[in-house]
Amino acid sequence: MRTGFTLVMPRWNGWTSDLVAMAEEFAAYHPARGEQMRAAAVLGYRPTGDPAALTSYVDDLGPWLTGEYARVHGVKAARPHSQTSGPR
After folding, report:
1. 8 contact partners, CB below 8 Å, separation of at least 6
2. What percent of the chain has pLDDT over 70?
3. pTM
4. Which run of H or E residues covers position 7?
5. Is 47 exposed, middle or buried (0-12, 13-18, 19+ CB in 10 A)?
6. pLDDT at res. 79
7. Torsional class of 33: left (φ above 0), alpha (ψ -120 to 50), beta (otherwise)
8. Run of H or E including 2
9. SS3 for 13-69, per residue?
10. Average pLDDT, the chain
11. Which residues contact 23 (CB under 8 A, 6 or more apart)?
12. CB atoms within 10 A of CB 8
């Protein structure tokens, strides 16, 4: 949800933590993927454990979001490896 919302947030000119609002704003800019995001918002509040829903996000919506995010925002460089990782 948040990855999808970051695609439209600059045009919407704001932020929300409300998953339904995120889905609606996303759908306004990407209507072909709107229903998927609306369904994801519902499941974000009421998970069902439905394997078909998970598969659709992993195999379809997720890769689309990844590609669209890279197209819009670019691919971020890998973080440098730190010799001191983890809490002290």
Report:
1. 25, 26, 28, 29, 30
2. 92
3. 0.78
4. helix 2-12
5. exposed
6. 85
7. alpha
8. helix 2-12
9. CCCCCCHHHHHHHHHHHCHHHHHHHHHHHHHHHCCCCCHHHHHHHHHHHHHHHHHHH
10. 90
11. 1, 4, 34, 37, 38, 40, 41
12. 17
Residue 57, both tokens: 């996000």
Mean pLDDT, residues 4-18 taken together = 92
Tens-place pLDDT, residues 46-75? 998 889 988 998 999 999 999 999 998 888
AA letter at 38: R
Query: Which residue has tokens 């995010």?
Result: 69
Amino acid 28 reads: A
